[in-house]
Predict the structure.
Amino acid sequence: MANKPDIVTLQELDAFDAVIDARSPAEYAEDHLPGAINCPVLDDDQRRVVGTLYKQRGPFEARRLGGVWVARNIARHVEALMQDKPAHWRPLVYCWRGGQRSGSFVLWLRQIGWAAAQLQGGYKAYRRWVVQQLQALPPGLTWRVLAGPTGSGKTRLLHALAAAGQQVLDLEGLARHRGSILGAWPDGQPQPSQKAFDTALVHALRGFDPSRPVWVEAESRKIGAVQLPESMAMMLQRAPRVLVQAPFEARLALVLQDYAWLGRDPQALAQRLQGLRGLQPGEVLQRWQTWALRGELPALFAELMRLHYDPLYQRHLARADAVAQTVVLPALDEATLAQVAHQLG
């Protein structure tokens, strides 16, 4: 392996047994290559100190201190994570842009005897590739969009389609958000960063067979704090829509089930409703906040659906291309959804 180059491109990722992210934990948490493990050569505090030292006293002083920390951290990672790796193990290491952090790690690993390599351009090159893929991949797929008002069972029907063997893209699952003012995930689960969402989206898109349709829910360009790429939003706007309808009582029951967790903190729910200020009359918003504080969720969500979500959906539907098919769900139970998914497939 000695004659193999130790700098490789993104096209060679599959040739390696492991991908190591040598950046700091904060950089890794924002986004990283799929499947990469974080083995920082400098932790967040060390990186900050070295950066400050570089600016104030120059590169030599920064490297003298940083070199000690890098050596200690690499040794710790090798001892903790790599003692069981065979001689033929091939790790790929990257940092921000293929510089000293990943280069130092690769040098150590190669000295031990592993055929380690450094990713050319590092994460920065990977990020450029992700942005390119986000524009190139969506137009090459055939999309089928599930549309319908809040509570009509679109997400559950999407999961039923997946269970029936159809190709499905769960954008709300990737974004960890339902895309509405009350759409945050339960128990304070945070959304991914925009970069992490982009990475997950590219990973999903690359797994689809272009010869088969991909089912997805109708979404706005923005899902909580993250945004769809322009090409994706355009394809969803133009794709054939399957309009999902269900009785209001069934929709309300589904919404109360999905959003029941909001009732655990009435003050927080009332505060969330503040996001509708300017969109609803003041007396309506005050009534909704009173119901939230009292825990009267059936009345609250019934009016939210009738006065806010349903009119909002109708406006979105009017801006979309024509509906190709309408599916009426008499109920939203598992058996009904499975039957409809089979018919759509």
In short: The chain has a mean pLDDT of 93. The domain at 142-344 is CATH 3.40.50 (Rossmann fold).
